[in-house]
C-alpha cells in the first residue's frame, strides 16, 4: 500500500516537473556567446512562406554565427498577435514579430513596442514607400518597418472584355466607366457572369476606404484618435458600394464572401474583382484566361489603402538581443531580399531600391501586372488604424454590412457608426 | 481496490482497540476516502489548472478594464456597459434562436432515426454509419463544405434550386437567412451524434413491455407515446443538456463562414467573447461575457439535474 502511495506521488512529481520545465525553454537568454532572438511571423497568403522564412533565417545565421533566430510560425495574423500578446503578458516578449500594420495603436496603447526612429538613419526610412510608412508613423516617430505589404487592385478578365466588345487593354478608369463596363459584362442578370465583385466580408472597411479615398480622403485621422465615418465623402463611397448591386445590378446583392471572390474570378463568374495584390501569384498560377491588373477606378481621383504586415520590435529584452534584432531587421529589408520576397509571395516590394535590382526588373518586364500595385502606391494611403482598432473596425464593418444587406440606410448606419466609434475613442482624446 | 486483503489488514491494524461498530465503519471509511481523494488528485489538479483557476480569474478580471497591460479596477461599471450593449443583446437573442432552432429539431430527428434504425433490416448498419458520419468531421471542415453549399449562383443549393426553377437567396449574405442556414448545418452535423445515444437507450429498453402491449393490441404510435418515449426520458435529458451546451460551444463555423455577420446577424456569445478578447484585446469585457456564459451554462445544467431530473422516471 505504502509503496503504491509513494509510487503515485513520485509519478505526480515527475509529471509536474515535466510540465513546468516545458515553459522555461523558449526565452532568448544568451548562452556561450550566441544570442538567441525570437521572430514571430504569420502566413496570410498562399505560397510556402514558412519555408521562405526558414531559408532567410538560415542565410542570416550563416552570416552571423553568433546569433540564433528562432522563427516561430504563428498561423494567421490574429493568431500570431494572440501568441505575441500572450508571450508579452507572460513576461517573455519576443524580440521581433510581423503583425498587422494596423495593430500599431493597440501595441502602443499597451506600451509593448520599441520606437524605431533612433535605430536607423533617415535615409534608410526614406527608401520605403511613403504609403507604407504611413501606417508605421505617428507624427515623426517610426514604430515599425514595412514588411509584407499589399494594396487593393482591380483584376479583370481580358477574354470577357473581348467577348463583351470592350478593349481588353483599356480597363475602366472612372466610376462611370466601371458601371458602364460592368453593365456590358453582366450576362443574363448575373446568372452566367457578373460584371464586378467587391468582397464585403471581413475586409469591407478596406474596400469602403478605397472608395472614400477615390472620392476625397481617408476615413480616420493620422493619430488614430478620430474617425470620419459619416463625412459626406464616406457616405458617397458607401452609397456607390451599394448602388453597384442595388441600382446598377452589376454586382451580386447582399454580402460577398472575401474568400470566394478570387475563385469566382478564376472560374469566370465575375469579369472584374477588387482584391488584394496578395492574390496576384494565386491568380497568375490558376487563371486559364488572359487577365489584366489595373488601378482602382477613380471617382475624383485614384486611391487605394495599403494593407498587410510590419515588423515590430518589443520592449523588455536584453540589450544584446536588441542589437541582434536590429541586425536581423536590416538583413530582412535589404533590397535584394525585399525583391525576392515580392517575387516569391506576390506582396508589393516595400523599398524603392528593390525595384532597381536586376531580379525585380526582370520579373516585372516578364509580368507587367506586378508593377501596377507599386505605381498605384503614389495614390495610396494608410489602412484604417485607430486606438481600439478591433472595436472601431468592427463598428464600421457592421455598419457597411447593415447597408449592403438593406437593413438600414447609408445615412442612418454611418451616423450611428460614427457615434459608436466616438464613444470608443473618447478616452483617447486630449 | 478497496477490497484487497491489504486494505482490510490495514483497517484492522488501525482499529486494534475494541471500538463500536459505528465508529469502526467511520474510521475505515475516512481512510478509504483519503485514498479515493488521492486517486482523484491528478484530475483535480488539472481541473483546477484549466477550469477552476481560469473561471475564478475571469470573475476577477471582469471587475477590471482598460488596456491589457494596465488594467484598472472598475467595479460593476463594465457589467453595466456590457448588459446595455446592443451587440450583446443581439448575440444573446441569436443564441436563444439558435437553441430553439437546433435543439428540438435535432433531438426529434435523432429519436426518429434511432427508432427507425433500431429495427433489424438490410443495410441498417450502413445507414447508421451514414447518419453518424457528419459527427466525425471537425466543425471547421464542415463549415468549409457548407460554405460552398450556400455560395450563391454555383453553390450546391443554388444549383439545386435552379434545377427546379427557383432562385435561391444569398444564404450567408442576407440577414434574414443566415441564421436558418447555420441552424440547418448544425442539425445536419449533430443529429447523428444524438442518434447514437438514442440507439443505445433503445437497446436497453425491456422487451416484455412491448410484448404485452402488442397482446393488448396497442398501435405503434401508442407504443411510442406510452412506452418508448417515457422510457427514453433519461436519454433525452442527457442529450438535451449536451445539445444545449453545444449550442453555446459550437462557434467554429462562424470563423469560416460569416465572422458573425452580416452585421452580427449570426454572431453567437462564444464568438463574441473571442472577438472581444482576441481582436479587440478588451480582456475586461471578454471576462464579463465569460462570466455571463458560465452563469448561463451552470444554470442550464443545474436546472436539468436538480429540477427536470426529479420529474423523470428512471
From TrEMBL, chain A:
Keyword Signal on entry: yes
Coiled coil: none
PROSITE patterns, per the entry: PROKAR_LIPOPROTEIN
Transmembrane helix keyword on record: no
CDD domains in UniProt: PBP2_UgpB (cd14748)
Classification via InterPro entries: Bact_solute-bd_prot1, SBP
Family of the protein in this entry: Belongs to the bacterial solute-binding protein 1 family.
Protein name per UniProt: Sn-glycerol 3-phosphate transport system substrate-binding protein
Phylogenetic classification of the source organism: Bacteria, Bacillati, Bacillota, Bacilli, Bacillales
TrEMBL record, chain B:
Membrane topology reported for the UniProt record: Multi-pass membrane protein
Entry's transmembrane regions: 34-53, 96-118, 130-149, 178-202, 223-248, 286-308
Gene3D superfamilies: MetI-like
Highest taxon, organism lineage: Bacteria
Domain ABC transmembrane type-1: 92-302
Keywords carried by this UniProt record: Cell membrane, Membrane, Transmembrane, Transmembrane helix, Transport
Cell location: Cell membrane
Similarity section: Belongs to the binding-protein-dependent transport system permease family.
Name of the featured protein: Sn-glycerol 3-phosphate transport system permease protein
Species this chain originates from: Fictibacillus barbaricus
Organism taxonomic ancestry: Bacteria, Bacillati, Bacillota, Bacilli, Bacillales
Amino acid at each position: 500500500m505504502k509503496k503504491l502511495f509513494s509510487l503515485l506521488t513520485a509519478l505526480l512529481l515527475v509529471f509536474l516537473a515535466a510540465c513546468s520545465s516545458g515553459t522555461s525553454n523558449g526565452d532568448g537568454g544568451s548562452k556561450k556567446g550566441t544570442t538567441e532572438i525570437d521572430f514571430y511571423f504569420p502566413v496570410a497568403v498562399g505560397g510556402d512562406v514558412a519555408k521562405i522564412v526558414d531559408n532567410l533565417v538560415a542565410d542570416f545565421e550563416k552570416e552571423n554565427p553568433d546569433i540564433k533566430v528562432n522563427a516561430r510560425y504563428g498561423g494567421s495574423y490574429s493568431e500570431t498577435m494572440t501568441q505575441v500578446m500572450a508571450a508579452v503578458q507572460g513576461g517573455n516578449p519576443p524580440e521581433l514579430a510581423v503583425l498587422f500594420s494596423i495593430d500599431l495603436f493597440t501595441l502602443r496603447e499597451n506600451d509593448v513596442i520599441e520606437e524605431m526612429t533612433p535605430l536607423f538613419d533617415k535615409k534608410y526610412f526614406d527608401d520605403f514607400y511613403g504609403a507604407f510608412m504611413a501606417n508605421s508613423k505617428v507624427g515623426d516617430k517610426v514604430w515599425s518597418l514595412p514588411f509584407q505589404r499589399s494594396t487593393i487592385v482591380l483584376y479583370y478578365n481580358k477574354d470577357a472584355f473581348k467577348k463583351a466588345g470592350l478593349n481588353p487593354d483599356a480597363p475602366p478608369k472612372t466610376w462611370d466607366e466601371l458601371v458602364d463596363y460592368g453593365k456590358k459584362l453582366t450576362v443574363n442578370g448575373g446568372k452566367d457572369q457578373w460584371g464586378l465583385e467587391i468582397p464585403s466580408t471581413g475586409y469591407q472597411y478596406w474596400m469602403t476606404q478605397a472608395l472614400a479615398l477615390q472620392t476625397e480622403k481617408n476615413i480616420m485621422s493620422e493619430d488614430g484618435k478620430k474617425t470620419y465615418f459619416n463625412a459626406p465623402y464616406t457616405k458617397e463611397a458607401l452609397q456607390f458600394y451599394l448602388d453597384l448591386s442595388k441600382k446598377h445590378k452589376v454586382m451580386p446583392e447582399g454580402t460577398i464572401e472575401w474568400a470566394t471572390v478570387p475563385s469566382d474570378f478564376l472560374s469566370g463568374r465575375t469579369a472584374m474583382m477588387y482584391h488584394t495584390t496578395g492574390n496576384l501569384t494565386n491568380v497568375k498560377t490558376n487563371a486559364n484566361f488572359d487577365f489584366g491588373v489595373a488601378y482602382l477606378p477613380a471617382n475624383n481621383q485614384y486611391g487605394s489603402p495599403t494593407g498587410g504586415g510590419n515588423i515590430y520590435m518589443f520592449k523588455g529584452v536584453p540589450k544584446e538581443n536588441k542589437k541582434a534584432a536590429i541586425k536581423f531587421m536590416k538583413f530582412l529589408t535589404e533590397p535584394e531580399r525585399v525583391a525576392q520576397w515580392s517575387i516569391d509571395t506576390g506582396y508589393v516590394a516595400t523599398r524603392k531600391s528593390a525595384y532597381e535590382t536586376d531580379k525585380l526588373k526582370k520579373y516585372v518586364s516578364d509580368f507587367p501586372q506586378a508593377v501596377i500595385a507599386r505605381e498605384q502606391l503614389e495614390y495610396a494611403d494608410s489602412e484604417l488604424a485607430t486606438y481600439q482598432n478591433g472595436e472601431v473596425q468592427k463598428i464600421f464593418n457592421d455598419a457597411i454590412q447593415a447597408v449592403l444587406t438593406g437593413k438600414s440606410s447609408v445615412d442612418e448606419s454611418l451616423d450611428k457608426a460614427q457615434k459608436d466609434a466616438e464613444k470608443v475613442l473618447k478616452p483617447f482624446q486630449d | 481496490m478497496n477490497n484487497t486483503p491489504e486494505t482490510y489488514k490495514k483497517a484492522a491494524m488501525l482499529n486494534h482497540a475494541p471500538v463500536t461498530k459505528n465508529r469502526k465503519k467511520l474510521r475505515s471509511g475516512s481512510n478509504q476516502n483519503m485514498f479515493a481523494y488521492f486517486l482523484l488528485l491528478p484530475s483535480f489538479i488539472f481541473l483546477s489548472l484549466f477550469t477552476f483557476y481560469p473561471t475564478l480569474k475571469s470573475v476577477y478580471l471582469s471587475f477590471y478594464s482598460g488596456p491589457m497591460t494596465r488594467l484598472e479596477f472598475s467595479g460593476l461599471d463594465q457589467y453595466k456597459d456590457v448588459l446595455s450593449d446592443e451587440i450583446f443583446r443581439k448575440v444573446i437573442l441569436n443564441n436563444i434562436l439558435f437553441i430553439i432552432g437546433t435543439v428540438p429539431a435535432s433531438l426529434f430527428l435523432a429519436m426518429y432515426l434511432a427508432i427507425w434504425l433500431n429495427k433489424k433490416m438490410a443495410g441498417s448498419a450502413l445507414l447508421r454509419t451514414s447518419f453518424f458520419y457528419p459527427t466525425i468531421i471537425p466543425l471547421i471542415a464542415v463549415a468549409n463544405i457548407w460554405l460552398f453549399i450556400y455560395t450563391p449562383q454555383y453553390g450546391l443549393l443554388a444549383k439545386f434550386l435552379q434545377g427546379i426553377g427557383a432562385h435561391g437567396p444569398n444564404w450567408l449574405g442576407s440577414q434574414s437567412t443566415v441564421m436558418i442556414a447555420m441552424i440547418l448545418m448544425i442539425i445536419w452535423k449533430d443529429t447523428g451524434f444524438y442518434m447514437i445515444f438514442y440507439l443505445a437507450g433503445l437497446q436497453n429498453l425491456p422487451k416484455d413491455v412491448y410484448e404485452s402491449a402488442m397482446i393488448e393490441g396497442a398501435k405503434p404510435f401508442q407504443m411510442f407515446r406510452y412506452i418508448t418515449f417515457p422510457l427514453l426520458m433519461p436519454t433525452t435529458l442527457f442529450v438535451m443538456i449536451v445539445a444545449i451546451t453545444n449550442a453555446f460551444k459550437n462557434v467554429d463555423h462562424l470563423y469560416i463562414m460569416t465572422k458573425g455577420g452580416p452585421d452580427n446577424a449570426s454572431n453567437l456569445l462564444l464568438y463574441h467573447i473571442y472577438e472581444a478578447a482576441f481582436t479587440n484585446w478588451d480582456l475586461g469585457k471578454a471576462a464579463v461575457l465569460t462570466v455571463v456564459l458560465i452563469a448561463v451554462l451552470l444554470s442550464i445544467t443545474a436546472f436539468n439535474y436538480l429540477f427536470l431530473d426529479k420529474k423523470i422516471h428512471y
